[in-house]
Amino acid sequence: MKTRRIGRTGLEVTEYSFGGASLGNLYQTVSPEGAFGALDAAWGAGMRYFDTAPHYGFGLSERRFGDYLRAKPRDSYVLSTKVGRLLKPVPEDQVPDVGFVDPLPFKLEYDYSYDGIMRSVDFSYARLGLNRIDILYVHDIGVYTHGIEQTEIHLRQFLDGGLKALEELKSSGMISAYGLGVNEVEVCLNVMHRAPLDCILLAGRYSLLDRSAEAELIPLCRQAGTSLVVGGVFNSGILATGAKPGAHFDYGAAPQAILDKVAAMEAIAADGGYPLAAAAMKFPLAEPAVATVLIGTAKASSLKRNMDLLKIDVPAADCEKYRAYTTVQQPLTGAVRE
């Protein structure tokens, strides 16, 4: 599989990569055998960049990634995880429900401070059982997760302390790159105007259906040499399943306006003789600022099916046809950029 560079670092990642939320039992239980099967399918498809987080299954995903990757030569893959949440042990009946089925017995505490990030990295090393993490993302620091008031507090905590921790980790060689892992454009712009970033893992905001990143963020990434790691290319599923009843968009049921847009996009794909999902998979990599497209699944069969889509020709001109049906996320925050 072809590779692309992360920012101005020496890291090279495969153009398609594997995301680990599903291996934390997101929405459904995944057996250890099933998790290893999905990872094995990703490795067999040529993926050599793997992303996980403490949040995914409250440590379960990190443990599974570590158990799988420990048998691989360390220089043969790139690994990222995230900071911003610390895990605290609690009785089983006090484990919060945030979408993970049978997670490990912990609760989450947000901490974007210098000490919080350093502690988070130490805990991730222990869960992974590995001695190197290549990329750290500051996880869910925006309004989408925290609301406007708390986002300002967390951003200040990060900029006043957490950023220094990431800079020290990179300068010491403990990591090779750092950035944000978020679902919204506005917080990326806010941070990039205040601090340099090697990369941004952006979910759902640079797809055939939602091109919120195009207006400001992508030009700024080109200028700053910041790479985009694009997740959520199916926008929670609808670009893969189509505009059928029960289709999901942006982590919830798709509203009628979105169903209508996707139905029109499906008609374009049908005229071209290919599935819409194939265009969704290929679209982001036409942008040079995009380093990789992150695919997450708990099933080896789903991973193989998605990778088979890459064998299908999609006319480049069709991406402009889809633009007529693009939706753009409105800014969620009134935060002043500095």
Structure characterization notes:
- This protein is of the alpha/beta class and 338 residues long.
- It is built from 11 helices and 14 strands.
- The protein has helices spanning 32-44, 60-69, 114-128, 143-171, 186-192, 217-224, 238-241, 256-272, 276-282, 300-308, 318-322, and strands at 3-5, 12-14, 16-19, 49-51, 78-83, 85-89, 106-110, 135-139, 177-182, 199-203, 227-231, 248-249, 252-253, 290-296.
- The strands form 4 sheets. The chain has an 8-stranded parallel barrel. Strands 1-2 form a two-stranded antiparallel ribbon.
- The longest helix has 29 residues, at 143-171.
- The N and C termini lie far apart (40 Å).
- The model is unreliable at 333-338 (pLDDT under 50).
Q: What keywords describe this structure?
A:
single chain; 338 residues; alpha/beta; two-stranded antiparallel ribbon; 14 strands
Order of helices and strands: EEEHEHEEEHEHEHEHEHEEHHEHH
Distance between the termini: 40 Å
Helix-residue proportion: 25-40%
**Strand line-up across the major sheet:** 3-4-5-8-9-10-11-14
Cα Rg: 19 Å
Biggest beta-sheet profile:
8 strands, parallel, barrel
Low-confidence stretches: 333-338
Describe, in short, the structure shown.
With 338 residues, the protein is of the alpha/beta class.
